[in-house]
Amino acid sequence: MSEEKKGFFARLKEGLTKTRNNIVSGIDSVFSGFSNIDDEFYEELEEILIMGDIGVKATNEILERLKQQVKEKHIKEPSDCKQLLIDSIKEQMQVGETAYEFEHKQSIVLVIGVNGVGKTTSVGKLAGKLKDQNRKVIVAAADTFRAAAVEQLEEWAHRAGVEIISGSENADPASVVFDAVNAAKARKADVLLCDTAGRLHNKKNLMEELKKINRIIDKEFPDAHRENLVVLDGTTGQNALSQAREFGEAAQLTGIILTKMDGTAKGGIAVAIQSELKVPVKYIGVGETIEDLQKFDSEQFVNALFDVEMKEG
Q1: What tens digit of pLDDT does each residue of 98-115 get?
Q2: β-strands 281-285, 293-295: how paired?
Q3: What does pTM read for this prediction?
Q4: String of b and e for 176-189 (b: at least 16 CB within 10 Å)?
């Protein structure tokens, strides 16, 4: 494993401490507290997984697979099925290959999400990462309803050494995107990252605004590769899942950025999101620095959660 990956795995493991204490210690006590595998054993596991924000649907499917495996392999000892449970959780998170084509194509990335989830920070970190890959990046400050968002993004753009397009406070977000799309075309930018409005007067307005932004991009730059990433705060658990569903109604989501995973006992939400939405978590944040936003790997995530050492490779 590369040093960078090893370093992030250690940070991820540390970041998931609260979630691990919430879920894994409970699971371990079930495995050690039961002498045989019966309905009560499965009920206890079910309660722990649901309480850990893995969600009802994903939990049911994880346990169904576990029951099937236990039956097929004639397992009698509860302790013998821990690895089967881990494998079942990993399987539940499969969403097919997670593509990062926008890193290699001329792309427009809309970053959406409610205020307070770390959206603007995520845009800034992503800009820095892409710049480090020698991509020409422009960021658009289209979250015009929150004055601090523009200042915050200017600071990140300056730090990352990328260009920023912004409008006046309370400007129409779609007009900022219009200017940014044309600037990206004229300056032959590789990636345009758009920080969009986290709130408007009501949800309907916000969703209409997103649709309007999408129409502008379709019209002005139809050849650009498109990516719609929703930023979700890991500490909000099931609420994050509801937000993703709502945004999914207004924009076709291609991926999720899951932030603040280092401060939450609700990290199981990553399992619920991939299991229920079938939209890949593309990035996970476990801290403040650019290095703390990394590509998400569900296998690595579950290994870190259960404190399973990563194999070399």
Answers
A1: 889 999 999 999 999 988
A2: antiparallel
A3: 0.91
A4: bbbbbbeebeeeeb
